[in-house]
Specification:
Helix Hairpins, two-stranded antiparallel ribbon, 12 helices, 57% helix, flat
Length: 279
Amino acid sequence: MTNPGPPSHHTLPAPTVWPMVAALGVTLLGAALVTHIVVGVVGLILFVVGGIGWWRQVLPEEQVEHVPLVPVAERAAPVARVKARVDHLQLGEAGHRVRLPVEVQPISAGLVGGLVGGAAMAVVAGAYGLLVQHSLWYPINLMAAVALPEMAEAQMPQLMAFNAKALGLGFVAHLVVSMLVGILYAVILPMLPRRHMLWGGLIAPLLWTGFLWALLGVINPTLNERVSWSWFVVSQIAFGLTAGIVVSRAEPVATMQSLPLEMRMGLHGSTGSEERRKP
C-alpha cells in the first residue's frame, strides 16, 4: 500500500440556519401565551419549516463541506517546549480581570435617575392630559385603572374627574416603578456597548412599550384602546433620556474585581497579598 500522505482538507458538517429558525419558532410559541395568537401561528410555521429544513440537511445523507488545509510546507512549525517559568498575574494586577464590568454606576445614581426620569415622564403625561383630553387627571386615573377595577370600567367623565384614591395609588405606583427602573438602568447600562443614550433613551423604551402594548391588549383590551400609545412612547423616551443622562454622568464605582482574593472572600488575615509577593 502506498502512503496517502497528510490530508488536504477537513470534512465538516455544512453550515445551516434551520436550527435557529426552529428555535425562533419555539420562542414565539412561548411568547404567544402572554401576547397574541398570531404570534403563536407565526412561531408554529417557523418551527415546522425549520424542522423540515433541518431534517433535509442530514437525511437521507448528511450534507458536508470540505475545508482545504494549508500545505504542509506553509504550516507553522511545532512549538518548541521551554523550561522557563511563567509568571502568573494576580487578580486585578496590570489590568488583568475575569469579571466585567470593572466599574459600575452606584445604586444611588439609579435612584436619582429614576426620580428625575419619573418627573420628566409625568410632565409629558400631564401635557397630554391638558392638551388632548383637557384634563390633568385623565392620565393619572388611566394609570390607576391598571389596579383599580372601578377605574378600568369608568366612563370618560369619571376618568377626567379628580379621584383621590386613584391619585394616591397612581403616585405611589409611579414613584416605585420609576425608582426600580432607575436602579435597573444603573445596573445594565455599564454592561451595554457604547452609545448608552441610544440604548437607554430609545431602544429600551420602544421594547418595553411594545411589550406593554401586547400584554395590555390581552389582559384589558378596553383599557388598551384608551391609551394614546404615541404619547406613551414619547413619555417613555423622556424617562429613558433623563434617567440615562443622570446615571451615565455619575461617578463610577470600582467592583470587587480589583480587590485581593482574601478581601473578596471576607477573610481578615494578618498578611496581605503584598506581603506574600515579597521575596
